[in-house]
């Protein structure tokens, strides 16, 4: 699969088989992530990996409870209330692998740098038949100092994103429609 095909066909995947992603494949994906550009070549990323469906399901439940306690009138979570209040809701969609990407807080562009790294990993995974989905909901728990300390993450790192991953179960749905690019300016002075 070439890069254009990967871009054209990638979807967020929320259904996974029981086959674990092997260590070699994960290491290859991380290495491809680090090929991303970064400000001043700072490469401010570091990674955490959690594997095991049961372990990840427990974390999903812990994170769901944190989210539910954060649903207040006017909060961005309010529109997800009925979904999140369902104890059966698994925010990691039954994945067997979670990837945590952390940025060095002292690097001013670490959020952008790490996001590019995540995009590399998601596209490379897709080209290998591995599905992934960035889970923003995870941040409510996983971005806390307490969670970082529990996982041994140094205090100078900030969580940028959590991605659930696994071998895709079933066919990829068609690509979701995108709005036409909104062009705010296009100056042609030549
Ligand atoms: C920063 C970010 C946070 C996201 N958070 C979640 C999430 O918490 N749960 C989820 O199921 N999908 C999440 N997604 C996936 C989006 O819903 C998905 O990318 C979007 O609907 C477009 O669909 P596609 O990725 O299949 O093209 C997130 C995506 C991004 C980039």
Provide the descriptors you would attach to this structure in a database record.
35% helix; NADH Oxidase; 4 strands; binds flavin mononucleotide; alpha+beta; 7 helices; 190 residues; four-stranded antiparallel beta sheet
How would you characterize the overall build of this protein?
The longest helix is centred in the middle third of the chain and has 18 residues, at 110-127. The chain has 190 residues and is α+β, with helices and mostly antiparallel strands. It has one domain (3-167): NADH Oxidase (3-Layer(aba) Sandwich). Strands 1-2-4-3 form a four-stranded antiparallel sheet. The radius of gyration is 18 Å and the shape is globular. 31% of the residues are buried. The mean pLDDT is 97. The protein contains seven helices and four strands; from the N terminus they run ααβααβαβααβ. Residues 11-12, 14, 133-137, 176 line the site of flavin mononucleotide (FMN).
Could you give the topology of this structure?
Blueprint lengths: L2 H7 L13 H11 L11 E7 L1 H17 L11 H4 L12 E8 L5 H18 L2 E5 L4 H4 L2 H6 L6 E11 L23
Antiparallel strand pairs: 1-2, 2-4, 3-4
Helix pairs in contact: 2-5
The structure holds flavin mononucleotide (FMN).
């Amino acid at each position: 699969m070439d890069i254009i095909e990967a871009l054209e066909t990638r979807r967020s995947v929320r259904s996974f088989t029981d086959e674990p992603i092997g260590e070699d494949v994960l290491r290859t994906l991380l290495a491809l992530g680090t090929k991303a550009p970064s400000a001043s070549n700072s490469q401010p990323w570091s990674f955490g990996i959690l594997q095991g469906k049961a372990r990840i399901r427990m974390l999903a439940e812990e994170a769901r409870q944190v989210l539910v306690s954060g649903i207040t009138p006017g909060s961005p979570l309010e529109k997800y209330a009925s979904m999140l209040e369902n104890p059966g809701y698994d925010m990691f969609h039954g994945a067997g692998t979670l990837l945590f990407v952390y940025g060095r807080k002292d690097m001013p562009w670490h959020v952008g740098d790490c996001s590019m790294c995540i995009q590399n990993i998601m596209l490379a995974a897709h080209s290998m038949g591995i599905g992934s989905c960035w889970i923003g909901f995870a941040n409510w728990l996983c971005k806390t100092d307490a969670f970082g300390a529990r996982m041994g993450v140094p205090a100078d790192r900030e969580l940028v994103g959590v991605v659930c991953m696994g071998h895709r179960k079933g066919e990829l749905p068609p690509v979701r429609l995108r709005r036409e690019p909104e062009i705010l300016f296009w100056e042609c002075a030549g």
